[in-house]
Amino acid sequence: MNFILMLMIVAMLIPIYAAWKSNDVWQKMLALTSVSTKASIIILVVSVLRDDWMIGVVGAIVLSVGNAGFMLLAHLLKRMDNK
């Protein structure tokens, strides 16, 4: 199981590398959204492995609400660019 968690962490680092290489704001926002989603999935996997559903609730909240902030920020940036 530790091997699966290590693979998930490595998969989480790939978008960070892509965001580091890119100068485009939209690419960085997409990469950070991807990291947020992958981190919440890792939290859910850890909660199942530990049989601790309180951690699972936190992972579900991060998964559902965490990307909403990025979507609002994306819309704000898009509207500022149009004016």
TrEMBL record:
Alphabetically ordered keywords of this record: Membrane, Transmembrane, Transmembrane helix
Transmembrane segments: 53-77
This protein's name: Sodium:proton antiporter
Organism taxonomic ancestry: Bacteria, Bacillati, Cyanobacteriota, Cyanophyceae, Gomontiellales
